[in-house]
Prior knowledge:
This protein is α+β, with helices and mostly antiparallel strands and 168 residues long. The protein has 6 helices and 6 strands, in the order ββαββαββαααα. The two termini are 22 Å apart.
Amino acid sequence: MRDTLVLNASFEPLSTVTLNRAVVLVLQDKAVVERSHPELLVRAATVELPVPRVIRLCRYVRVPFRQRAPWSRRGVLVRDQHRCAYCGQRATTVDHVVPRAQGGGDTWMNTVASCAQDNHRKAARTPEQAGMPLLRRPFEPTPADAMLLALGTADREALPEWLEARSA
């Protein structure tokens, strides 16, 4: 699970990484902990480190401008908060609004999170053909939004104030 936010040396959000990767970056002196979990520690034989929630790289990393967030099944589930677009229950799979059999592709605007039952019931039909209206429409997140969505809503308390306002 990617639950640690990585900031560039200039405090720009870059990505999210696993706890293990964040600890390695800090121990290699490539990053510093900006925010940590208030009560949890990572302990080893000779080192004790607070569990990092937000880390900042020590050196600036030049990142090419990315206009669009890359599509992924995991990204769709995170965007839709693991809630089925048809019934609102826990979603475990991704459904194509316009099925691939009818020419639909793997895009942000054509995929929604779905529970297995509704995905099977809808089959190779559009929501209109199946009589299954969408509870919410799909949207394409910006790259920054996709990264912040991956952190989850509970993690927003761990973000710096300037980043909380931007992600709201």
